[in-house]
Amino acid sequence: MTPKNIKHKLENLYQRYNQPKYIHPDPVEFLYLYNDVIDREIVGLIASSLAYGRVKQILRSVSCVLEMMTPSPHLFLRESTHTSMCKAFKGFKHRFANGDHLASLLLGAKNVIDKYGSLNDCFVRGVSDDDRTVIPALNVFATALRAGDITPGHLVAVPEKGSACKRMNLFLRWMVRKDGVDPGGWHGVPVSKLIIPLDTHMHRISLKLGFTAKQQPNMRTALEITNGFRQIVPDDPVKYDFVLTRFGIRDDMNIDNL
Questions:
Q1: CA nearest to 249, candidates 211, 215, 202
Q2: Strand, coil or helix: 47
Q3: Hey, is 180 helix, strand or coil?
Q4: Contact present, 123 and 186 (Cβ < 8 Å)
Q5: Which residues are bridge partners to 93 per DSSP?
Q6: pLDDT over 80 at 249, yes or no
Q7: Confidence of residue 56 (pLDDT cuts 50, 70, 90)
Q8: How far is 60 from 67, CA to CA, in rounded Å?
Q9: Is 27 within 8 Å of 47 (Cβ atoms)?
Q10: Which residues, 6 or more positions from 13, have their beta carbon under 8 angstroms from its beta carbon?
Q11: Exposed/middle/buried for 215, CB within 10 Å: 0-12, 13-18, 19+?
């Protein structure tokens, strides 16, 4: 397919499926429960960090965590200690993540907010006009979340180690973009610098579209695929991420017809 044909197909999908009524089941739905961005960014970090495995289990796990943090995740972090968070989430399990991993993630978020004012303000510290992508800022942000003796394990990936950082890039898509699906709320991060949240589904679709020939879904592959989307929509390379990841979720969408 030519870039023009690809864009036409993707835009048709976007116009049809990038709507609030098609969000469920997707963890981004939890962000819409919070109007205050200071709560929403914490919810986004939690929901994206647990966004692996079967979608029903993801939604169940995120819901379980947020129930413990009512009525305000920000207030919960402000009033909690590492010890109290470990106690609150003792017994939590989401595939490879346990209560200690989750408590460490939340402690990292608490420390970042205490130091910078918000997760957004921390991330922006790493953003530079000279950078083509958010990778340098991602490194700053991940390092801040893992500072000291904090051990969230795989819940916080570090891009400089080669990881595609799928879940962190998903978090950024939710917080930076704003349309019918992505709620936005962050400032100071250009949409044009975002990187595609690369998982096995997006990798397979990108191979089909000819955006990459690489077989390993790592950061190099994510950047190559992002560049492919950037050729079509230079200012918004992750625009079609939501609709493309509906393949395999919705019965009325068949990747063979793409």
A1: 202
A2: helix
A3: coil
A4: yes
A5: 98
A6: no
A7: very high
A8: 11
A9: yes
A10: 240, 243, 244
A11: exposed
3-class SS at 81?
A: coil
Digit-coded pLDDT (tens) for 203-243: 999 999 999 999 999 999 999 999 999 999 999 999 999 99
Domain boundaries, the chain: 3-257
The residue type at 94 = H
Residue 178 contacts by C-beta under 8 Å, 6 or more apart in sequence?
184, 185
117: burial class by Cβ within 10 Å (0-12, 13-18, 19+)? exposed
Contact residues for 135 (Cβ-Cβ < 8 A; gap 6+): 159, 195, 219
Residue 186: both structure tokens together: 């962050």
Structure tokens at 187: 């400032």
Helices of type H across 50-193:
55-68, 73-79, 82-88, 99-116, 119-124, 135-145, 166-176
Residues 222 and 225: their CA atoms lie apart, in Å, by 5
DSSP class of residue 160 equals G
8 A C-beta contact, residue 201 and residue 245: yes
Q: At what angle do helices 166-176 and 37-49 cross, to 10 degrees?
A: 160
- In terms of residues, how long is the chain? 258
pLDDT at residue 155 in the model: 97
Distance CA 20, CA 38 (A): 22
**Residue 41 is inside which H or E element, if any?**
helix 37-49
Q: What percent of the chain has pLDDT over 70?
A: 99
Residue written as token pair 């469920």: 24
